[in-house]
Amino acid sequence: MYFKDVNTRHVLVWITPAYQPRLAGIARYARENGWHLTILDRIARRPVGWSGDGALVTMRDNPEQIEFVESLSRNKTPVVDLTYNHPELRVPRVSGDHEAIGRIAREYFESRHYRNFAWFSTTWQNVHKLRYDGFSVKGGASGAGSVARWVLSEEAPPDRLDDFGWFDKWLGAKIKAAPKPLAVLAYDDADAARVLEACVAVNVSVPEEVAILGIGGDRLICESQVVPLSSVEHDQGRTGYEGAKLLDALMRGGKAPASPILIPPRRITERASTDFTATASPYVQKALAYIRANLGKSFGLEQLAESVGVSRSTLVRIFAKEVGRSPGEEITRERVEFAKKLMSTGSYSMAEVAFKAGFCNPPYFSNIFKRLVGETPLGWTRKAGGPRLSRSK
Prior knowledge:
This protein is α/β, with parallel strands linked by helices. The protein has 16 helices and twelve strands.
């Protein structure tokens, strides 16, 4: 028989959509601290008669939810919002860093030499705007290249929002008319899948003509497409855990932070939808393919130039024009990016990562990594929220 324990925190969880990683982060904190959770699943109306110690919510365009949260605040019941759709509401927040999500996407595409960019989303709210702002000109490393903004709800008649035939024709026309090669960032993985469908409908090749990047890291969506989708993985699990941690502090009488707590994205998981480098020179394409195929081996500019079929000086000149870096700088950059992928798995020691990525020894790898990334490999792994990188195995 169950009796209500006055020492147990009773917490309401009103999260939509019910992303499992975010709920898992909340559940982990609840287990560690002996909470009782009341979870509202797909309930749009306010819970009548609920009383408890605090609430974790995602604020949507739901008048009943907004009124309920405001009533909790009036009654001094702590509430933490786990999204950023309503910045005008004075509620403590723990949210993904949506501008940083946009920036990391822009930097990723720029590292692959794209200069034509587009954004797609089905709707438009504050979170969409933040991601778009990060992806737009001011967020780009190069400061060049405007971003076309394609928002379905702003252009489609209400009765066409779920008309897939109309959508494919509408977005397909925009994709056809856009300069190529084109890099598209979608609001989430579901929107990225819609972009892919439109490309297929109008016979535009992915990724050779259009590279597509989603947000969310939903493997069910990303890996079940005709062209598997790359995705920015923002740390929903950590957002849920840190949100619960903040709510706990508020329930204990702590003060709300002056500004939202923002959780940075973890990484970009690359799949076939972005497996292309946007450069006009076939020599650069061939050189980049050679570099990526031989990252774990020792080779220099002479071998690289020989694989391409040009002289060393010609290769240097072409890279300066097409890439904006020397071949040697590009080799080092590719080695560091490959090392990040290895570190994110948590399967290798620092020494193993260094050698697999083509560095002569771990100290040299650490020095190069810190120079290019701004922090040590161990520091980067902790900040990215991935598995710990050990110094030895």
